Amino acid sequence: MGKIHKFCEKFADIDSDGKQTADDFFLGIRTADVMLLAALLLLCAAAFLFLRIGEKAGETVVITVDGDVFGRYDLSEAQTVPIEADDGHVENTVVIENGSVHMEEADCPDRLCIRQGAISHANEAIVCLPHKIVITINGGRTGEYDGIVK
Amino acid sequence: MKREHTAMLGVCMALALILSYIESLIPFYFGVPGMKLGLCNCLVVILIYRIGTKEALVLNIGRILLSGFLFGNAFSIIYSLSGGILSWLCMTLLKKTKRFSVYAVSIAGGFSHNIGQLIVAAVVVENYNIFFYAPALMIAGVVTGALIGILSAEIIKRLPAM
User: Fold this and answer.
1) Beta carbons of B102 and A26 less than 8 Å apart
2) Within 13 Å and on the Cβ side, how many CA atoms surround A107?
3) Which of A6, B2, B53, B149 fits a disulfide with B106 by CB distance 3.0 to 4.6 angstroms?
């Protein structure tokens, strides 16, 4: 009880003279906090813009399993792609329709890949961590010109 | 590590496991994998401020291994471990500067936890396109970090120094 009482006394001191002792610097928001928050939000915005600026309509769907390319598919062509495990049973089912891709079925416990929904833009991805499956969309051409000669 | 903290750390570990379980029950999901409230981070923040940074690291690693074996799988342990260690490192360093409040320390912790997880996830699946999720995970880390920071600050204020 003595400890608690002592702590409360210290707490009251801060309130009365408004100063913070070295041990109590965690109380109240400080200037450095706001700067850190602003820096982190700026970083988020920069990352967001960086990814959005390069956004273009996707053309091909690339499925990789464990880092290896499983298959490439045309985004405009409606189809169902089953992905089988080593023992032959279907682990995941990928559906391509109306210019977008989504995971239709998965036998993993969390099914986060299904909940990630449909993707349709270049560089978007659906990830299944338990099965190490990544579905990405590639844009067709990288730019209007192959190169610029000055 | 002080001997008298052993019992307290045991209690904290039990609490961390309960929080992990509660968190697995709450559907906190916004369309991005790996997004969680991080209730256990609250315990880590409190330990950093009230007992010590080393003890906080021990608790963090211990609860990640235990909750991973209980509720997750080998991969969730790898992701959580990388995020947990990175966030502990960032929080410890920020606290050492003595310029930041517990709110900023917690925000940096949430942010770095998500970044650490994402980097290891990219290495594991060998596909760097999953950095597409980076902005969403960054924002989520800041928001959950702020919430956990407010919660931790309120608890720390009411908890005597040990």
Assistant:
1) yes
2) 8
3) B149
